[in-house]
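Late entry, evening session. Most of the bench is empty. Finally got around to the prediction I had been postponing all week. Sequence below, unchanged from the version circulated by S.P.
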Amino acid sequence: MAVPTLRPEAAATLARGAVIPAHPLALTADRRIDERRQRALTRYYLDAGAGGIAVGVHTTQFEIRDPEHALFEPVLALAAEELDARASADVVRIAGVAGGTAQAVAEAELARDLGYDAVLVSPRVAGADERALLERARAVGEVLPVVGFYLQTAIGGPVLDRDFWREFASIPAVVAVKAAPFDRYRTLELVRGVAASGRADEIALYTGNDDAIVADLLSEFHVESPSGARTLRFVGGLLGQWAVGTRAAVALLERAQRAMAGDAQAYRELGLVASDMVDVNQAVFDPGNDFDGVIAGVHEMLRQQGLLDGVWCLDPAEGLSPGQAEEIARVRHAYPDLNDDAFISENLEAWLR
């Protein structure tokens, strides 16, 4: 069977490096999808200059797949409609897939039918060992190109070693890997595994380490490959953090690209903003409470800016931690260059039409 390939425009964007926000889920107070605001979010990301959008991922809430909600297809379809109407050909369309092999393949087939370019495979599968995760990725890779995902253990991700990533990256359908273990050692193991596969030139590395965005974008990894010593680096980010402040994220990535091309001033500027970005992330992602408010935190930032009407999640028990809303308000005012407040205010009415 032929290996699925990306559209040339999407492949070029993914290889060059892009800002790919993880799309949240807009709900009403009775926890039904708020179609108007869901579309507004997609429009925001596109107008902000995102090079791709990831839908049906952790930030979209894994519960969209539960039978009582049955929102997986509607959510993917809404985003696809907006992408068809507004996005240029070089915007990468990524759908998250989850569950065991049969479920993940079925979700990939739906994503393919809706016009998505690739699938991000969640590693959070009950009872699955590394061998099962690899076999699932191979099966999904017969449907669409695959983006790997190293998910932090705090929200259910498994620890995956260098050998796993070497085998994973050896799968011909794998076109990118998102590193989000929130751990420098594990991030390095992932990069070493990709290098050891011999396919590093075919696989784009994307940071998902929301607590180390700038550090990842400015890092050079000196690793061994079958052809000898190599230097690898992250070319972009696929991030829940970039579901807020997306226009600012586009500017940050452009500055990182200039810095890595030798622009010393851009490098110094990023050094100054790195800790500010971490401060924003701690407010939104709630690490002080073991990330309990991570999804609600993204919602709260967007609510304060007018894009969402509330912080409701499909799980009624999921919400903001005490003091989190105040922390988000603090970082919004402390770091105006990172939050898109002015950009959103100027465009909100048009996005909500």
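Two things to note before I forget:
The mean pLDDT is 96.
The first strand starts at residue 19 and ends at 21.
Will write this up properly tomorrow.
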